Amino acid sequence: MIFGLGALLFALLVYGPSLWVRFVMWRHSKQVEAMPGTGGELARHLVERFALEGVTVERGQPDQDHYNPAEKIVSLSPRVHDGKSLTAVAVAAHEVGHAIQFIRNEPVSHLRQKHLGKAFFIRKIGTGLLLFLSTVALVVKIPHLFALAIGLGIITMLASALMYAAILPEEYDASFNKALPILEEGYVPRQHLPAIRSVLKAAALTYFAGALAEILSLWRWLRFIR
After folding, report:
1. DSSP secondary structure letter of residue 136
2. Which entry of 35, 42, 136, 224 is 20 to 30 Å from 60 by CA?
3. Sign of the torsion angle spanned by Cα atoms 117, 118, 123, 126
4. What is the pLDDT along the chain (226 residues), one digit of tens a residue?
């Protein structure tokens, strides 16, 4: 009973933020007819307004909104690029906020380069250890070795999530020092600003929440072994 409650609490702690992000994005995804333009139109307008030289806006893959600093591309998912929802305009402004950071070479723009590679490396090491130790545990039939594999997997994924946490200042800057002041100028009806703030907070937490949620993928290995 205690173990079951502990497992449920752990699952809520690591997956709860991701659920909240998805809920906020979905809650404010309804089209707002009073919106002056789509997310893509807003992004292109802001690129021109802030003279972000070389930056382009493209209609990207579903659920993949990001700014690519190497290619200077603001890539917006179809729902954001073509949508007139609060989620669409807030996410579009957030991604343009990243473009502003990098074009201006602001200190926060260096966080991604400093920590994201480490996050990928740690995750790769953790996955490799999990595969190796769990395979050995299956062959030699040592349950404690499998438990060690799961423990190491959790530790490395938590470490990876911490690397994403280190990038949060960059994400919050894009949301609340860039996107929000812009949108408050009249780009969205004032009564919608509280919702815009919620979406911008969700946008800032997206990658960190996703990194935490990936920890639950370890349970697939438990089910496989069983």
Report:
1. H
2. 35
3. positive
4. 554 565 667 667 777 889 999 999 999 999 998 898 999 999 999 999 999 999 999 999 998 999 999 999 999 999 999 999 999 999 999 999 999 999 999 999 988 777 677 777 777 777 677 677 667 766 777 667 767 767 776 777 777 777 778 889 999 999 999 999 999 999 998 999 999 999 999 999 998 888 777 776 666 555 555 5
Under 8 Å between Cβ of 115 and 193:
no
What is the C-alpha separation between 89 and 42, in angstroms, rounded? 7
The backbone torsions φ and ψ at residue 57, rounded to the nearest 5 degrees and listed phi first, read -120, 130
Coil/strand/helix, residue 66: strand
Distance in angstroms (rounded) separating the CA atoms of residues 97 and 43: 10
Task: Map tokens 């999990």 to a residue.
Answer: 130
Token duo for residue 108: 């926060």
Q: Length of the chain, please? A: 226
| Tokens, residue 182 | 């812009």
Q: HSE of 15 in the Cβ direction (CA atoms, 13 Å)?
A: 12
Contact predicate 175/21, CB 8 Å: no
Phi-psi sector, 196: left (phi>0), alpha (psi -120 to 50), beta = alpha
Say if pTM beats, i.e. exceeds, 0.85. Answer: no
Alpha helices by DSSP H, listed for 108-217, are 110-140, 143-166, 168-172, 180-183, 193-213
Number of H helices, E strands in the chain: 10, 3
